[in-house]
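Quick one: structure tokens for this chain, please?
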Amino acid sequence: MDVARRNNVTRVGDPSGPTLVLAHGFGCDQQLWHPVAARLRDRFDLVLFDHVGSGNADPAAWDPDKYASLTAYADDVVDLVEALDLRDVVFVGHSVAAMIGALAVAAAPDRFAKLVMITPSPRYIDEAGYRGGFTRADIDELLHSLESNYLGWSQAMAPQIMGNPDRPELAEDLAATFCRTDPAAAKVFARATFLSDNRADLAKVSVPTLVVDCRQDAIAPREVGAYVRDHLPAAELITLDATGHCPHVSAPHATAEVIASFAGR
């Protein structure tokens, strides 16, 4: 299958600049990157795409068994950079896509120069010595709610994920993005996301990495960002003066500037 069609690939910006691949998180699509892309396109070659099962990715590519694992999404990323013959890529992943990026970098390190992880979480479930932010009962309840009424879950969860209650339009935009996602695919992606444990994969990332978290985030608390930084071979952590799990939407200028500063070194 043609990768550009499969993943609805869009390429904009300055083709002479460093190449940034922007990857969206669960329930989202590439449209949520537009505020950041608008601030980067005069300096960088930007590649945006939709994960299979999301946005305008080709529905014919969806396979619920294949995409029950984050490895399949990482394989798609490797396919994408190879099909476009991209090298020295700076991969920018939001939320679960940060971990997808880590898996892709580990699988094809010769294609990637740097990794930017926006509000990452290698494991959402708490256990002894590790705080992910949720108990197993919390995640089971979340998945049950999502699987029984996806549209209702989207409306209820979007404000919690986005934060910024004084700017309700941001949560409305996120809920609209959730509602554009095929519920059947969302259920599979949700399980792959919220039940994943990729802590051991952090040590396999061989490129310089920027971890970006927010001052307050209901999905990935500050301890998670510090954990990711401390378990990567070469990483730095920047905490934005922002709230919510989606700073590329709620604080696009600050997010774009930390990406540009790191990618342009």
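The first helix runs from residue 3 to 6.
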